[in-house]
Write a structure and sequence with these properties.
Blueprint lengths: L1 H4 L2 E5 L1 H6 L3 E12 L2 E12 L8 H7 L2 H10 L2 E6 H10 L16 E4 L13 H5 L1 H12 L3 H5 L2 H4 L4 H7 L2 H9 L7 H12 L4 E3 L3 H8 L9 E3 L1 H7 L15 E3 L6
Parallel strand pairs: 1-4, 1-6, 4-5, 6-7
Antiparallel strand pairs: 2-3, 3-8
Helix pairs in contact: 4-14, 11-12
């Protein structure tokens, strides 16, 4: 809409999307009376997502800021956005709990925007292979070896790209600058998403990867028109002083119906 066109854009990293779903499927065994017999049946439900091994206190504290970010997205003057690549990754990773009460962003409008460069124009395969993290890293490695002149020399190749992708390939040196500022190739997929956020004019790129954020922000040789930040920084910017509770913190089995409207 014309109204949302003027709103600030805030991009969400894939780790924010994956951590926004706080429950995972579970089941318990229960003995019931079936005629003259006692039968053990499995009852489907949920359990709270366990903390990842090695999760530090600061990271979980930032995850706990996501409900407040979701509330602000409903009322503040900004649009939450993700790239198609992030949407694809999170769709595969977020499980059946998407849209339930255990999903922090349930009911929040999140725009899905075109990637700076459409990876499907370069890589094909089944869902599992295309979505693998290593495949994204290999795609980043390919782009790192290319310049705009690489594509200019192959007009027939350019015919496979959208106009949006072509315009971004002309400034592919910007992507090189981003990933060359990162300490390890495992951060390259996040650098690719940051580039997408930049070309869409986003002001913030919200991530739960402090090392990724600090590496870019502490590198004087790179300008950051879209600033990588933790969720708490966006909340500070928009005055979210009342922190919303997590949707679920129950450590035991959760009845299926309690999480579904």
């Amino acid at each position: 809409s014309l109204c949302s066109w003027w709103l600030m854009r805030i991009f969400l990293d894939r780790n924010v999307m994956s951590e926004s779903v706080r429950i995972i499927p579970s089941s318990i065994s229960q003995t019931v009376e079936w005629g003259d017999n006692r039968v053990e049946v499995k009852i489907a439900g949920w359990k709270c997502k366990p903390k990842r091994q090695g999760d530090s206190a600061w990271r979980y504290s930032e995850i706990c800021k996501l409900p407040t970010l979701a509330k602000l997205a409903r009322t503040a003057n900004f649009d939450l956005c993700i790239s198609n690549e992030t949407h694809f990754e999170s769709f595969l990773a977020r499980s059946d709990a998407v849209g339930t009460r255990g999903d922090i962003f349930a009911g929040v409008a999140i725009q899905k925007l075109e990637d700076a460069v459409d990876r499907s124009s370069f890589q094909q395969g089944n869902t599992d292979s295309v979505s693998s993290r290593q495949n994204v890293i290999e795609f980043c490695r390919l782009l790192r070896q290319c310049s705009w002149e690489t594509f200019e020399r192959e007009p027939s190749l350019c015919g496979h790209f959208s106009q949006f992708t072509l315009e971004n390939l002309k400034s592919i040196s910007r992507f090189h600058q981003i990933i060359d500022s990162l300490p390890h190739e495992r951060h390259w997929p996040d650098g690719l998403q940051l580039w997408s956020a930049e070309v869409h004019g986003a002001e913030y790129f919200v991530s739960l990867d402090k090392r990724f954020i600090n590496q870019l922000r502490n590198t004087p040789k790179i300008d950051l028109p879209c600033l990588p930040v933790l969720p708490s920084k966006v909340i500070e910017r928009f005055g979210g002083s009342n922190i919303e509770p997590m949707p679920v913190e129950d450590s035991g089995f959760i009845d299926f119906g309690k999480m579904v409207d």
